[in-house]
């Protein structure tokens, strides 16, 4: 067998090279901003991520003719959790403020939340002014500062029936004393409710509720 001429070998090699070059082409894998992927034989549009690759031109590029790929699901970040707030107990109410007051005319004891009293007039004999007949039988109760001097030309009898201005005296109790006084008032109120008729109970019940509220700081 005779060897082929050199020119024929060169021509055959060129034909094979052209055949191989004609059998491949450049494709582009384009990724959009939303994660969608597409394949095409043209460069990707601006804003898309491009990745070139070689493929057989006799076959369709990867993904051509197929349904477009669905975009990759976007994972949502978990919602921010609010920091746990520890429950702080409410502050304790302040201790009650209470004044023990004594009437100037009969030494009757009562309680006041302010200690402020109004002056009033009583017969001079009630407060036991010296020299009055009525005062000889009544125990003196008001301080000396609340007993103004009374001058009457009619003598002791006129002084006893004359009116003088007096004012009750009050002193503030300690928190412990105030709590004891409030409890005593509540016990007295409950005792009255047991003996009261139906018409008197609503007022006593409202008073009892107020006394309980005042003991919140005890």
UniProtKB/TrEMBL annotation:
Give start-end of the signal peptide.
1-17
Keyword terms, alphabetized = Signal
Record domain DUF4124: where: 14-67
Query: Bias regions of kind Low complexity — which residues?
Result: 59-79
Region Disordered, annotated ranges: 43-92
- What InterPro entries does UniProt report for this protein, alphabetically? DUF4124
Name of the featured protein: DUF4124 domain-containing protein
Q: Please name the source species.
A: Tahibacter aquaticus
